[in-house]
Amino acid sequence: MFNNSGGTNPGGATPPGFANTVVIGDSLSSGFENGSLLDSLQPNGWESLVGTRAGFSLVLPLIAAPGAPAVLELTSLGPPPVVTQTSGVTTGRDNPDQQPTDLAVPGQKLNDLINDTPTLLPTTDVDIITELILGFPVGNNKSQMNEAIALNPTVLFLWIGNDDALAGDESGTPSAMTPVASFTQQYQQLLTTLHTQTKATLIVANIPDVTAVPYLTPAATVIADFAAATGISQAQATTDLGIQPGDLVNATGLQQVQTDVTAIQLGVAPGALTDAGFLDATEISAIQSTVDQYNAAIAQQVAAVGGVLVDVSTFDAGLVQNGATINGYHATTAFLGGLFGLDGLHPTNTGYALLANEFIDTMNTSLNTKFAEVNVSAIAAADPYFGPNIKPAGSAVSIPLNAARRVDQLISPKKQAR
User: Fold this and answer.
1) How far is CA 417 from CA 16, 109, 125, 252, 409, in A?
2) Predicted pLDDT at 415
């Protein structure tokens, strides 16, 4: 157990135990924001913010503008809001000669973290990002797990499995998720390996409800928008689209709705959304149940190796239910609600600050540290995508199709944008 009181002074010496801190995981542990890994945004991630309070520093694999992939920007509030992708292609790493200690790779699943290594000829977004993170300094060729072991960490933060779960959102099919038996076996392999091959204190986060993200648009909103765009009744729109209030529509479904709007304008009968385009109540429940089983496996394995479990699942559920009042503004998890960025999946600076405090609070309770919390109020005041700073119009704002597609390209990189 750590026992120090120096954490309230971020400018002081590195606290005992944190001298060599490493982070592994997916996009949620990389500072990924607004659809991009970008040098100006990466330091806003929860892991960097925890470092500022705990007194340790991380080497981030900083990606030059416009990011990888190029960052999304809000160009009009509308309604509807307009999100565009910045032009250009990144030149690569700002710091190619530095060994990163934040090794988290956006788009990687649990099996990828264990096994995937940089590829010589990357083609997909995930392959390119893997090369930029794990392939530098030139010659590095290990997976996240093996690179972390080689760095001989004293503390190791791990948050993985979100993309295993999000496959159900993106595909509209719970069966696309990593099977629970495979996830359990892989997680046991990962934690056992990290526990036996390092002396690190393991700080591990579990998985939030992936159906409660603004990447998914409530069917009630889709029905209302479709009726308004076509001039038909909402009852007829419900029949035409084949969805019900309470369903959730993904990017594939939004594309199909756009096609149906055009069809009606041309006097052609619309078609119902395919199963790949939405989640019905049964499918939503199945995804949530699978995530619960993932989290049970995570909790069991963390306990088996004596690690610290950060219950992001419960924390996130509270935000979904109640939001958060910051600087007098009630922020929510809705699109442009202040807590999620433009891709509908990754937090804003404010959202990452709240996550950082959940990690800090858990560490203080479990490890007897005394780290001060991040100043969420100050971060929100300067956050360009926190509510009062963008003044979103209306309460039924939903994610644009092109922004939702950014998530698809990470979760299922072999699919081409449609």
Assistant:
1) 48, 20, 12, 10, 7
2) 47
Q: How many CB atoms lie within 10 A of CB 240?
A: 22
Please, which pLDDT band fits residue 2 given cuts at 50, 70 and 90? very low
- Do the beta carbons of residue 126 and residue 30 sit within 8 Å? no
Q: Of 184-188, 264-268, 288-292, 314-318, which gets the smallest average pLDDT?
A: 264-268
Question: Mean pLDDT over residues 199-225, rounded?
Answer: 97
The whole-number average pLDDT for the span 303-331 is 97
pLDDT of the residue at 406? 82
Distance of CA 299 to the CA centre of its chain: 20
Phi, psi angle pair for 316, to nearest 5°? -65, -40
Q: How many Cβ atoms sit within 10 Å of the Cβ of residue 95?
A: 16
Q: How far apart are CA 354 and CA 375, in angstroms?
A: 9
| Sign of the torsion formed by the C-alpha atoms of 145, 350, 311 and 288 | negative
| pLDDT, average across residues 192-198 | 98
In this structure, which amino acid lies at residue 180? Answer: V
Nearest-angstrom CA–CA distance, 165 and 174: 8
